[in-house]
Amino acid sequence: MDNMDKYFALLKEGGADLTLTIKTDTIQTAAWTIYRCKYGCNTYGKSHCCPPNCPTWNETQEMINCFQYGILFRCHEMSIVTPLAVKVARELFLDDYYKVIAFGSGPCKKCQKCNPNNCNFPDKTVPAMEACGIDVFGTVRNNGIEIHTLREKGQVQNHFGLLLVE
Ligand code: SF4
What we know:
single chain; alpha+beta; 27% helix; binds iron/sulfur cluster; DUF2284_metal-binding; DUF2284 domain-containing protein
C-alpha cells in the first residue's frame, strides 16, 4: 500500500489518537450484527444511515472484497468519527484514490430530524461500521488493539472509523 502518512496526520489533527493500515481480511462482518440494531437501538429504521437503509452485512462484505487494504482509526468521542472519516475520504479521493469509501461510528446526528428515505446531506455523512454489519470489536481485536465493553459511566470510550482505500 502507498504511504498514508498524510492521511494519518489529517486523522490525528481531527482527533484520532490511533491510526493504522490494516488488511481487509482482518475485517469481520457478521449476520448477528443486525439483531443488535433492530432490538437494541432506537434509530433503527429512522435514519438514512441506519439499517435497513444502509448496506447489509453481506453487501458490505462484497464491498470489502473489492479492497486489499484499509485505514482503521480510533477516537475517544463518537461524534467526531463520522465527519472525520468523510473529510479524510474526500482528501483521498481528490488525491486520486478514486475507490475510497468511508465508514463512521454511531447514528448520524447531522439533522435534527433525519430523512430516512433521502439523505439531506449525502456528501457529508456515511453509515457507521456497525450499522453496515461490521463486527467492530472483532475487527479491532484482529488488529491487536484492546477493546472491551464498558460498565461504568465516565470510562474512556473507544470509537472506530474505517476507510477502504487502494
Ligand atoms: S445528514 Fe441528515 S438526513 Fe442524512 S443521514 Fe444524517 S441526519 Fe439523516
